[in-house]
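Me: I keep going back and forth on a fold encoding question. No explanation is needed for now; the record alone will do.

Assistant:
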Amino acid sequence: MQDFNWKKLQNGSDIRGVAVDGVPNEPVNLTPEIVQLLGQAFTAWLAQKLSKPTTDLQMAVGRDSRISGPVLMQGVMDGMAALGASVYDVGMASTPAMFMSTVTPGFECDGAIMMTASHLPFNRNGLKFFTAQGGLGKQDISEILALAEQNNFPKDAPAGTITARDFISTYAEQLVHKIRTAVNHPHSFEQPLKGLKIIVDAGNGAGGFYASKVLEPLGADTTGSQFLDPDGMFPNHIPNPENSAAMASICQAVLTNKADFGIIFDTDVDRSAAVDHQGQELNRNRLIALISAIVLQEHQGSTIVTDSITSDGLTQFIEQTLQGNHHRFKRGYKNVITEAVRLNQTGEESWLEDGTYRQRDMREYYFIDDGDNLVSKILIELANANQAGRSLTDLIAPLKEPQESREIRIKIGVDEFKPYGENVIQQLQIFVAQQADWSLVPNNYEGIRVSCSSPVEDGWFLLRLSLHDPVLPLNIESNIAGGVAKISNRLLDFFDTIESLDLSAFA
């Protein structure tokens, strides 16, 4: 273990690694031995944070459907129990559920772990960590990895217990109760979704429970739901709502089954997306707009925090139609969560943040990546709209969407890519100042965002430096056909003057 690279396991505020052999150039680095040490490290770290002996800790561990899940989960639990902790084995679960195990009466665990690699391929796995304060941060994960590397745990601690408990049913009952109470249907309190056909695509991940344990008790017809059975090889499509094939599949399922609504989850249910009754994806701007409309009905004037590449039409919808405040911030869902928390701490109410188009977190749910609570929020509005004889999407009818959009990833061909990329952005700022119909957008927290007012462009672009890779992502949107090409061609003239940039993505 002396030569093991523990730092390589860190992925921001998560731990991820290769758990299954067989994929070329991807050697296994997440083994039962490794995760056992991680279970011990989390237990020791938490005991120190809470000023409690490890023998007084109550922990919970769950997993998604990955084939490596059972053996790795056992390793984690064995590590926790080796330090005397009492451990709940909750089996198949979701990421939002594992957080809720720390705050649900009757459980109220000191800490919880979800074994998942989110939407990554079948050979990967990982760990997400929670306390009653929410998900752990990047620095917390670094500290846990350091403890695992030191492996300086007591060898004579009294053994803890591992007890199987069905938490996902308890969690599902919470969702059912929330929807029933919020809708408060005058004639069908117990089944406010009766008469609605709602189908679920779980992608063979952990989200199949939502159809049987949430929708059906609420009266929904779930006929046509697909890929509900857990299968860690993910034989039908990539379990990721951002995957075009996955979205096409749920859209078609809605049309084929003449459903009123469609839901798709990623593997661990921290991401979700939706489809309307016409088989149209509620995507990007439309989904942010819909959730914003719902949130701002309850919390007037709230700030909606999104990442930097959201559209101008969304800003207009939030601020002019909904009378809220739209606050763009740096990409990266943790950046956006941190900013939303900061705004709340300074007295500026923020009840919704959107970090990656399909990860939308709400203050009422502790800003946890929470795909099933997000969907539940929409279902409440769907039930209310159905009672009133209107469509769910009537809420976002005024939303102006771009005619065209494109992302171009410009590779940087130098080793010290960060200062080089920052210099390119500075040079572009000078170039923009020389353009009569281009202007810098104020209050931009990442890269350079430019408004393009020419009648043949009518749009915007944003150039930023990737957080981790030698790449300058360039996002362009236009409100007219052909506008993106006009903007990109002008930018290409600028980039042609700069060395060490791979401009092949412009083709």
